[in-house]
Design a protein that fits this description.
The protein is mainly α. It has one domain. It is about 85% helix and about 0% strand. The protein contains five helices and no strands. The longest helix has 26 residues. The protein is flat, with a radius of gyration of 17 Å.
């Protein structure tokens, strides 16, 4: 890739793409975005559902991450998901501590 392209990338995408070939970098970025999206979904929105419904949800989540990967090279998608995962983790920990202290 050209160095001008790297200047417009956000840190996570820049690190991934600069350490590998572009096709491998895209696959790694997809994996990172998929994992972070699953974490955010599980922390913020997931409910107990039957197995088939979970499979359908995660299938569409994986398809949506394909679009996010295209955007993630030049927009802070992975960074935003990382911050969302951290905030939701803090919220869950605080909620657990509050429920534990009330009981």
């Amino acid at each position: 890739m050209d160095t001008d392209v790297y200047e417009h990338m956000w840190p996570i995408a820049k690190t991934i793409y600069s350490s590998t070939t572009p096709s491998v970098g895209a696959n790694i970025l997809y994996g990172v975005i998929l994992i972070l999206t699953i974490i955010v979904f599980r922390l913020g929105f997931a409910k107990k559902l039957p197995l088939l419904k979970n499979i359908v949800i995660y299938l569409f989540l994986a398809l949506g991450c394909t679009i996010l990967t295209f955007l993630g090279a030049f927009l802070p998608i992975a960074e935003g998901l990382l911050i969302a995962a951290l905030l939701l983790s803090i919220y869950k920990i605080r909620l657990h501590q509050t429920k534990k202290s009330e009981a």
